[in-house]
Amino acid sequence: MAHRKAETLSLFQEGDAFPDGFSYVPDFLTADQERYLIDSIALVDLKPMIFQGFEAKRKTASFGYDYSFDSRVLSKGKPIPMPFEPLIAQVAAHLGMERADVAELLITQYPIGAVINWHRDAPPFQRIIGISLRGDCIFRLRPHDKTLQGRKSILSVPVRRRSLYVLEGQARSEWQHSTLPVTEQRLSITLRTLLPGVRNTMHE
Ligand SMILES: O=C(O)CCC(=O)C(=O)O
Questions:
Q1: Eight-class DSSP state of 146
Q2: Quick one: 22-196 is in which CATH superfamily?
Q3: I want to staple 21 with a disulfide (CB 3.0 to 4.6 A). Which of 6, 62, 67, 171 is the partner?
Q4: Burial 173-187 (b: 16+ CB within 10 A, else e)
Q5: Confidence (pTM)
Q6: What mean pLDDT value characterizes the chain?
Q7: CA 96 to ligand 1 center in whole angstroms
Q8: What are the extents of the domains in the chain?
């Protein structure tokens, strides 16, 4: 499994290695942009996240497309609210994508102590972009292959508020990610693109 030196990731220690396909941009947003997004999220109806029948501590709202982990079906969701369009445009320009490539926008609110457990994102999605607001977190990566898992194979990345991270390629398909319990409320906006061809196979 290929690792890449994290020389562009200023928060990491010299010599740290991260999976291919993981990148991190501190201060992607200004404080004003962050405040605007936090105010916009305050107007969104966030619901407790139910995962495989259990209510998690975090609340979410999803737009664009919805994936059900129970039925494993992707369906068309509510339109992405306008206040998030400038963020999507900024991310698309930064990553050299088209606006239309961003299919899903997920808002997650983590109260103090909340986590997201080890997982890989749902199969129909390709590129995953995480924007952090209001609070920092420790974002962790470990190989998906159980035979490669162990305490020493966990990589911990301090992900700061106003930053952006990207998971694609090996980091998205061969690694799992999770976050440690947050010590202050954190909001995240996750943008996802779809795998090529997925839109054509959907029943809308
Ligand atoms: O809050 C984050 O940055 C992680 C979100 C995540 O992994 C997910 O929603 O699947």
A1: G
A2: Alpha-ketoglutarate-dependent dioxygenase AlkB-like (2.60.120.590)
A3: 171
A4: ebbbbebeebeeebb
A5: 0.90
A6: 90
A7: 22
A8: 22-196
